[in-house]
Every structure is written in C-alpha cells, then in structure tokens.
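Reviewers asked in the last cycle whether our approach scales beyond single polypeptides. To address this, we selected a multi-component target totalling 225 residues and predicted its structure end to end. The input consisted of the following lines:
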Amino acid sequence: KAGVTQTPRYLIKTRGQQVTLSCSPISGHRSVSWYQQTPGQGLQFLFEYFSETQRNKGNFPGRFSGRQFSNSRSEMNVSTLELGDSALYLCASSLVGSYNEQFFGPGTRLTVL
Amino acid sequence: KQEVTQIPAALSVPEGENLVLNCSFTDSAIYNLQWFRQDPGKGLTSLLLIQSSQREQTSGRLNASLDKSSGRSTLYIAASQPGDSATYLCAVWMDSSYKLIFGSGTRLLVRP
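The resulting structure, written as structure tokens, was:
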C-alpha cells in the first residue's frame, strides 16, 4: 500500500507570493491533517479535514487555509508569504482521524526569501 | 492546556546499549499516545501507538509504556544500533481535539 505522498518536496518562494501544497493520503484514509515544523517552534498543528470538512484549526493566521477533496486528497494554501513561513510542512493521514494511528508524509520544505 | 515534554533533549550512547526515552504530559485525559522517529530533513515514521486503556506496546527492539495517572510514557530501545540514530518524538491525542500535540523530541546518537 502506498504511503502518504506530498508534492512538491521543495519550494522556494519570495515574500508576498502565495503557495499551494498538496497531500495524497493512504488509500482508504479519510482524515488528513497538516503540521508546520520549525526549529524554534517544533511541530504545530495547522488543521484537520475529514470528508471535506474542517474539524479543527490551529492558531495560525488566516493566510493559512486548506481544503479537502472528495477523493480525500488535501491542499493547503499560504498567501502573502512571510520569511517566518519557511518550514517543513507535514501532512498526516489516518482512517477516521479520531484515535487512529497517524501516518506522515515526507513533507514539503518551503523556503521564503 | 496540554503540554508534552521530552527529556533528555539529546542523548549519545555507544552501540549495544539499552536506553530509555522519556515523555511526560500535563493532562492525563488523553485518548492515545504515539511515538515517532524522524531522520534529518525527513517526515515522521510511526513507531508505536498506545491506546489509553493499554499499558504497553512492543515492536521488535522497541517497547513503549504508558502510565496515564502519572502522565508519563517511556520508549525503551534494546541493543541500540547506529541506525537508530534519529530524533524521537512523542505525541498525544486529546479526546475530540482532532490533533496530535507533540513534544520537542529527543535527539539520539548511537556511536559505533
């Protein structure tokens, strides 16, 4: 069974631009979560989707948004990029989200110049 | 507010040694706890998942225990190998929160 895939793996953007990251969950998984990882703040929760509905959102500004499609694939968008948005963005999938084992993708490394 | 702490932040041991990594959490109302491994610049690999009703889980040379009442979990690695070198993260899942809360990790180096 294929694991969680994320595209692209690396991105370089400049301040003020916007970016869209994609996550394809493990087949059959309906919950997708997004996390931001930085050396200073560690792993922080962005949002979680199940059946195209956002069930929870972390403490991030409105510039961070996401969505989930009917095939459970998810995208996250960051608008008006800032230098501090440079991070590893990780996507996790699980069967139904609640209580299930979470499986993470390889991440997208975003660098904002 | 749930806080997850991992001690030590870094650990260096010679190959073959048995070792214990610690994870503590402030709110015992967790639903489960998951241990992960992360290699530099990579994603997270799930190692073990312990449900709140369980006391321990084992996979190969790894054994994780959970004591909800004291807010502690340990990850025991037997006969460590250089390939075990990585950052180990624990994370708890709170009931109805739909998210994992992570500790800051323990960076492990196993010297040949």
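Chain B has a mean pLDDT of 94. We regard this as preliminary and will revisit it once experimental data from Aim 1 are available.
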